[in-house]
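sorry for the late reply, my laptop died twice this morning and i had to redo everyting from scratch. anyway the thing you sent over, i finally got around to it. pasting the sequence first so we're on the same page, its 182 residues, then the predicted structure underneath. double check i copied it right bc i was rushing
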Amino acid sequence: MVTATDGRGAWRECRVDASNTLVVNGATTNEPVRSSTFGVAFVPVKAEKPETTIRQLVEVGVDEIIVIAPTRRAVAGARDRLVDRAERIVREACMQSRRVFLPAVHLGLSLNDVCARSGAALADPEGAPLGHAHRLLIVGPEGGFDDGEVPGSVPRVGIGPAVLRAETAALVAGARLAALHA
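ok and here's the structure:
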């Protein structure tokens, strides 16, 4: 038995028969669309595997994933490496976690454009508590963003008491948002 989905909320049980053919087994179920979505934006950094971060964010239930264009501390070229693989990574992670909605993935958005989005907040160990108004958490590179890279108008929110590696911070941000908006 397996489940098959269209990535837009519809799914149904199927089975594989003796000739290795997928056979429908039951009616289609349509899951309701969430009333609000949430996302994580992160900067790929040296030695990080952005593919792993994307995969983990999909598996914890993030609706939108943004790979920010290179900043002063980010590795250039991450977008180019991901263009061909991002869709496959997302589909495989959805299969693993049995998600029936494909999340949106945006590659190479500028930090300024990400900061301008409604509900955006910067993950900061000394930030205010995470709240329902926060819909998009921005995770910076190791050592954080340089002074002036993130406008002062972008709220700073905490995702935990520890200073985390960038790839760990992205996963924690996604998990915290998923728990908050569940």
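The mean pLDDT is 90.
thats about all i looked at so far, will dig more tmrw
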